[in-house]
Amino acid sequence: MRFLVSLLAVAVLAASLLLTISNDPPTVAVASGSPESKVTDPVPLLELATPHEQGLFWTLSQAEAKTAAEVHGMQVQADARVGYLRRQAFEGSTPLYRLRKQGRIAYMLTSSAAERDQLTSGDDPLFRYEGVIGHVSVSPQPGTEVLYRVHKEGAADSWRPALASRLGAMRALGYDQVDGPLGYVYPRWIRAGAIYFGAFDAQGNRAMMDRIGRYYGKEFENDWWGGVRHARDGNPKAVRHWPDEDFSHLKPSIGYYDDSKPETLERHIKQAAGAGLDHFAFYWYWNPGAADEQYAAGLRAFLAARNRGDMKFTVLPCIHPWRGGAGGTLRMPSEQIDRAAEILVDDYLSQPNILRANDGRPMLQLCDVRGIGKVNDRPENDKSDEIDDAAVRRFTDAIRTRARATLGEEVMITMTTDNGFPGPQHGVDGSYCPGRFTGSYEQYVAGEREWFGTIPGAVVRCATSDFDERPRIGISTQDPVTSSDSSEEAKAKLHAAFRWYEDQSPEGFRRVLGAVRDDVDASARSSAVDNFVLLYAWNEWHEGGVIEPNERDGCRYLDIVRSELRLRNGTGCVAVP
Q1: What is the dihedral of CA 500, 502, 507, 511, to 10 degrees?
Q2: Please, are residues 414 and 429 in contact by the beta-carbon 8 Å criterion?
Q3: Is the pLDDT of residue 465 over 60?
Q4: Which of 136, 175, 181, 464 is 20 to 30 A removed from 301 (C-alpha atoms)?
Q5: Averaged over 275-294, what is the pLDDT?
Q6: How high is the mean pLDDT of the chain?
């Protein structure tokens, strides 16, 4: 069959050459119960070149790819775009078999049980059957495209899988012969999550609620929505410097809520999962006074939600160096590191719906490490913003030691780019980027993809919906302008006190998500999280990072996320579940 195979003929091809459904029990390439088997999302089909250019090798297993490279001298083709497949069988799927050429380190893929049997049977078979590497869809599904098998005319052992959209590129490389379709796969599968601020409840920041009461009146001293509520309602104390600003979006579609209640998280899960989000990433804080976690009511409510299985989750330890919280500071003294590791592993990483990297490792993302190893006070000469590398390494080692002992698993740990790029001294596996403020949203959008290129190693990409600290006026930061002064000097004081994007727009958010998608598509990083994206944020209402549906915009931001990242899970956002 020649190169110009029309998509109209795919249905005929799917019923013939390679794509035939087998009733045989498949050999499982990823062992049941292994960490990789716990990842049910589509994962990238990895392509490796065998030694001495004898052929190519394919696997969905990061562990097998690592062994192939380290033990057998194969090289990962990081720029290959072969598509995303599921490791497990699903309704309407067929196995994808891997065959090895006898006497050579060359491989071929087929989804035809008949072809497999023909090539691996007899007294002197041409191939050896190596098992099922994954599963492809027999019929087209939304967002999928055909995965073909191609080869070079006259070149031995030159088989290669190729997406329909890349047949032209394959032809340019000499793969001018199309054997037929292997099945339907996803050309991309982005796993998008959102940062969750789980402290909109009575167990949240008591000191902030006290300041809300002092600024807005005693009747608001227990209002964890203070500031946000007041800006939305046009309270002069909140908006007098911005009388023409539209703050009507500052109310969730489901109303001002208590996130310590599981029913609140059940509604959030319905909104997020319906839009295709994969996970929530919960901020997590330490209380050095009690040697225990704090501000965890939202996270605990998520774990108690009846529909928690519809989303995954991870935890972002924010070990800030500054004062705050019930324990005096948000630090983690060295003697409390083991206790913190115990809570994180036993209570969270052990959960069945913990977020896992494509290689199956449970994930932990460090939101701030500057407070790790610091004593629970802040003397004047304290260099609190400096990172104690040894303490960070002790913390990450404690996490890994606890996970190996209690779970029998390795953990993937990434560190925020706000703390700089990690080094081997920190004991982490890569980076993630959180909310980003650069002064101008348009500049942020224009430069984000170039900035991604400066991050070494594995990275979880990010996208910031907005950043706006003005609801904190008079609460976290005093009003620096005592009158309704509109002078340039007054504007400069306000901008020095509060960060906000004056030029943010939904269309700008759409463009930055498009840049993220393009960067994932073009990436040559061979990491286990290269298709992960973290959004700032689900509900950072006091700081402007919000994609949660709101009264003014409804599902607008979640709809943009679903559209631009081409998310396929869920049936669409519902603003008020």
Answers
A1: -60
A2: yes
A3: yes
A4: 464
A5: 97
A6: 92
